[in-house]
Amino acid sequence: MKVDVLLGLQWGDEGKGKIVDVLTPRYNYIARFQGGPNAGHTLEFNGIKHVLRTIPSGIFHEGAVNIIGNGVVIDPVVVIAEIEALLKMGVEVKKRLLFSKKAHLILPTHRLLDAASEAAKGSNKIGSTLKGIGPTYMDKTGRNGLRLGDIHTADFRQKYSSLVEKHKQLLGFYNFSYQLEEMEQEWFKAIEELKKYEQIESEHFLNQALSNNQAILAEGAQGSLLDIDFGSYPFVTSSNTICAGACTGLGIAPNKIGNVYGIFKAYCTRVGSGPFPTELHDADGDKIRNNGREFGSVTGRPRRCGWLDLPALKYAIAINGVTELLMMKADVLSDFDTIKICTHYLLEGKKIDYLPYDIQNEQLSPVYEELKGWNKDLTQLNNERDFPVELIQYIAFVEKHTGVPITVVSIGPDRTQTIIRNKKAVAV
Ligand code: GDP
Ligand code: IMO
Ligand code: MG
Question: Which of 233, 250, 227, 242 has its CA nearest to residue 103?
């Protein structure tokens, strides 16, 4: 068996949580491979709307075990709150959730450092979710970090204190004022709770599962354009959000990767700062935001909205080796007479179809093709046979330009509003 990977191809919030939940019945294990509680993955079913931050989106299914991989960074306070919310809903979390011992811990001082670093950047701020992600990955690569497995060791408090001392010095350097005591009490209380949950060597566990013919789905967080190496640096997150991140974040060899499901919205959104070539600052942008309820599931910030960007999508497809595309939120474009798709950019008068190195400072303008809108409510449809012809044309346009089949079209937030298409060969 191979590991299938599901990841976002844009700037996050593509609908990963919804689709992982829909696909979970096909898998034995769902494994998150990177990111932390900067993620907010929304699921809707039976009239329930639920947002997951660290816990994989397969948790509501009885038949699947969910694994938080070594590449994830864990805030004990957040994950315990997530667990408590699930327990209240009657989810048997203990049976369905396993933690990698090698996952790194977000300390309260990582969150303070995130806030201090953002404040120091002034108008150049990243627009971070301020969950301590950057500082935690910095300590991981700087070889200072604390890992989940450490919580069971005798000298855990000592390790904690020596790292916090370093952080205090840095906070002093930033001249940042803070109250740590309450945050620490809450954190250590959550650590005690976390001790009740099973920790595993997840790389051995998952490779053994593969040998036993078990089906595994790796769940990404954020999106490819927020990747630390290939995103719009420095306006990115601090992990590898791309397919390669599933290898390092779970201990899966590259030749064990199977299908790569790439999720994208029928348009684009971005929260936080950074370049966004097709961003709309007009009534169309507002309409997308209102129709799509484009407000952050973690921070509540309005998401910036724009038309679909094919050069950026093709870039993400190439870097991830996407084998199937899943198009989300088609219903959001239902009341547009015309819909634009960016096929190229103009850079200093020249037509290009790639993302240049420093798009923040470049004069880049998108070149659009206009397609006829479908002007029909899609949310009640059950079959692709009922798709309006303009939607079929929109899908075919994207398939033609990317060379990858769109196998799923999502037409609403609920689990049931998901149309699985027949896989078709497409012309490149
Ligand atoms: P994730 O981070 O990729 O899991 O995405 P988020 O949960 O942050 O954001 C996606 C939002 O769109 C959530 O509020 C979902 O409930 C919602 N959503 C997902 N798919 C669809 C869809 O096809 N149509 C509409 N209207 N909403 C959707
Ligand atoms: P999901 O998994 C959308 C963005 C932040 C900011 C930048 C860095 O729900 O798709 P960080 O907190 O990592 O330091 O923020 O990345 N960002 C996300 N945007 N969806 C996410 O996750 C995001 N996680 C981080 O807004 O611009
Ligand atoms: Mg999200």
Answer: 250
